[in-house]
Amino acid sequence: MNAIEPHELVERALELSRADGCVVIADEDSSANLRWAGNGLTTNGVTRGRRLTVIATVGGAEGTASGVVSREAVTLDEVESLVRAAEAAARDAGPAEDAQPLIPSRPASADFTAPPAETSAEVFAAFAPALGEAFARARKNGELLYGFARHEVTSSYLGTSTGLRLRHDQPTGTVELNAKTADLTGSAWAGAATRDFTDIDVTELHTGLTRRLGWGRKRIDLPAGRYETLLPPSAVADLLVYLSWSSGGRDAAEGRTVFSKAGGGTRIGERLSPLPLTLRSDPAEPGLEAAPFVLTHSSGDNDSVFDNGHPLTATDWIRDGELANLLTTRHSAGLTGLPLHPPVDNLVLETADQSSAPTLEEMIARTERGLLLTCLWYIREVDPATLLLTGLTRDGVYLVEDGEVVGAVNNFRFNESPVDVLGRITEVGRTERCLPREWGDWFTRAAMPPVRVADFNMSSVSQAS
């Protein structure tokens, strides 16, 4: 599979193309993983993969059609059949609603012809010994550790018939660590995202889990209701990632979402939070670096294959508490009159003065009575018009009284809209990189603060553990 380099596959596909336009994406993946259970490693491995995607565009009397075909492990001899399949799909398709001229040429990436980046088991050189030490501490404490670590590097090569030759290397690392009491009645979770595992402090993660298992020795039953609630960064990320996915400019302009303005138009310019919160994306964000150009394998509500290669820049979605921008493709921007803002693969929520922002521990210390969550899961949309979501708490909900955690309470089902939550945040902590628990398989590049929310709606008691 690796006898030919990815950029050569791109060039061969473009050379073979007979369509009016052609976009080719070669993705080379390598991944390394560790899994553990009951204080011992269970599996580990390294994998490699390759995918070639050909997007053919064909003009006609009624408009331009597109056909997209992807295949795994493509060899040089198989490229022509893939190109012909994409062209056939385009000819069989009706005109593409999102059709636009392909992005014009600009200078090629300097490393476009270089071999793909790779990961290996060596990425865990410092992490694995630290994990072994955590196993020893857990056995001594009467705890059981479960979890997994994964590191993936994807090198993507984008070439087009208009002359684009762009490349992006994307490292993605995650670790999830779950500690349980020996009788399995107590559970605590911690997760982290990383580019290279050099910044993962296993001891710190495990120490935090041990502390939370200690909090859980005292059990307190609470009824459903509205509670002042401290949301940690992971929980905030899960809510705001879904908000981001739901912030399409066209849907808002057509009156279908929470960002639609009564009487027509969008809510851009309206205040969503009384606090000066900024939700933003930036492909160059330190530690959260993402592709600096559109790189999409299919068209959707907020993505267009015709936009492949368009430069991405820093964008404020919410600025100082006001809705500033919505997601748009070139097509939807033209329909709505909104600025062009394609999605960027990271998300940051922050206040301007990070130096004075409190830590989560400091926020706990000044809580008179409230709940402290660990994370959210099984999040589902109830009402797109209000972005009402439902889901469950998991792996530890704690009662805080007079600045101290006094015990663990039962889990809840919640019903909340992220937009409503933004309006009820009364305190914002220090922004830190985090791993969304629910969306971590799809979105890992996030930095969020802990927040204090008034009257968070715990709609019913849940038996989930």
Structural notes for this entry:
With 465 residues, the protein is α+β, with helices and mostly antiparallel strands. 20% of the residues lie in helices and 38% in strands. The strands form three sheets. Strands 3-2-1-4-5-6 form a six-stranded antiparallel beta sheet. Strands 11-10-9-12-19-18 form a six-stranded mixed beta sheet, covered by helices on one side. Helix 1 crosses helix 2 and helix 3 packs parallel to helix 4 (202-215). The longest helix is centred in the first third of the chain and has 15 residues, at 127-141.
Which topology of the largest domain does CATH recognise?
A: PmbA/TldD fold
Shape: globular
Could you tell me the number of beta strands?
20
The CATH homologous superfamily of the largest domain = PmbA/TldD superfamily
> H/E element string?
HEEEHHEEEHEEHHEEEHEHEEEEHEEEE
Could you name the ranges where pLDDT drops below 50 across 5 or more consecutive residues?
A: none
CATH-level-2 architecture of the largest domain:
2-Layer Sandwich
Give the amount of beta strand, in percent.
Answer: 35-45%
Count of helical regions: 9
Topology (elements, then pairings):
Layout: H1 6-16, E1 21-37, E2 40-60, E3 63-72, H2 79-92, H3 127-141, E4 143-160, E5 165-181, E6 187-194, H4 202-215, E7 219-220, E8 225-231, H5 233-245, H6 249-253, E9 278-281, E10 315-319, E11 322-323, H7 330-336, E12 347-350, H8 360-365, E13 369-383, E14 388-401, E15 404-409, E16 411-416, H9 418-424, E17 425-428, E18 432-434, E19 446-448, E20 451-462
Parallel strand pairs: 7-15, 8-13, 12-19
Antiparallel strand pairs: 1-2, 1-4, 2-3, 4-5, 5-6, 8-20, 9-10, 9-12, 10-11, 13-14, 14-15, 14-16, 16-20, 17-20, 18-19
Helix pairs in contact: 1-2, 3-4
